[in-house]
Amino acid sequence: MRHYPSDSVDLRSDTVTQPTPGMREVMSKASVGDDVLGDDPTVIELQEMVADIFGKEEALFVPSGTMSNAIAIRAQTEPGDEVITERYSHIYVYEGGGFAALSGCSIALVPGDRGIMRPADVEASIRKGDGSLGHYPNGSMVCVENTSNRGGGTCYSKEKLDQIARVARENNCASHIDGARIFNAAESTSLSP
């Protein structure tokens, strides 16, 4: 039995979840420590596991996807830069303008088909300050949401992601994946993240 207040299924968001009593029991027995001091074995284990899955030296646990996107944008842009992303992306629609408030960036919105951008449209949306007599912001980051929330869970093919990453590199832009549902994308494409 599920132990939910009703038998209805709440599909408002993939974030509307409640732990079961069994989950709560496991959480109450977890090893804990002070994460600020680097003493929480559960957080350390999670970060090491995620770094290993993605083939990175390290990973950083943050409490929300919005925070992870804000950190990624701030770390890879300068105030006044422009971030290139799909017009209905989570970064643009749902994150309270964090890109502007925290990083001082504007957004170039790219049309998409159910959340999926075409590489040619990404390239056409990248503007550079150099040579524009100061009229354009510097397009410095391309953000892809995979899978696309507002696109109904649509998933980029590896080929399309590779093409978009190549466009970003060729235009001196950082690449970022809003990976809130990255494991859904991995499952959909039968590829490892």
Can you offer a commentary on this structure?
- The protein is of the alpha/beta class.
- It has two domains: 21-54, no CATH class; 65-189, Aspartate Aminotransferase, domain 2 (3-Layer(aba) Sandwich).
- The chain has eight helices and six strands; from the N terminus they run H-H-H-E-H-H-E-E-E-H-E-H-E-H.
- It has helices spanning 21-28, 41-54, 65-76, 90-93, 98-103, 119-125, 158-170, 182-189, and strands at residues 81-86, 106-110, 112-113, 116-117, 138-145, 174-178.
- A four-stranded parallel beta sheet has the order 2-1-5-6, with helices on both faces.
- The protein is globular.
Q: What is this structure's SSE topology?
A:
Blueprint: H1 21-28, H2 41-54, H3 65-76, E1 81-86, H4 90-93, H5 98-103, E2 106-110, E3 112-113, E4 116-117, H6 119-125, E5 138-145, H7 158-170, E6 174-178, H8 182-189
Parallel strand pairs: 1-2, 1-5, 5-6
Antiparallel strand pairs: 3-4
Helix pairs in contact: 6-7
Briefly say what this structure is.
Helix content is 37%, strand content 15%. With 193 residues, the protein is of the alpha/beta class.
CATH architecture of the largest domain: 3-Layer(aba) Sandwich
Number of helices: 8
- SS-derived structural category: alpha/beta
How many domains make up the coordinates? 2
Named CATH topology of the largest domain: Aspartate Aminotransferase, domain 2
Q: Which ranges are low-confidence, i.e. pLDDT below 50, for 5 or more consecutive residues? A: none
Order of helices and strands: HHHEHHEEEHEHEH
The gross shape turns out to be: globular
β-sheet strand percentage? 5-15%
State Rg: 19 Å
Describe the biggest sheet? 4 strands, parallel
CATH superfamily of the largest domain, please? Type I PLP-dependent aspartate aminotransferase-like (Major domain)
Going across the major beta sheet, what is the strand order?
A: 2-1-5-6
Helix content: 25-40%
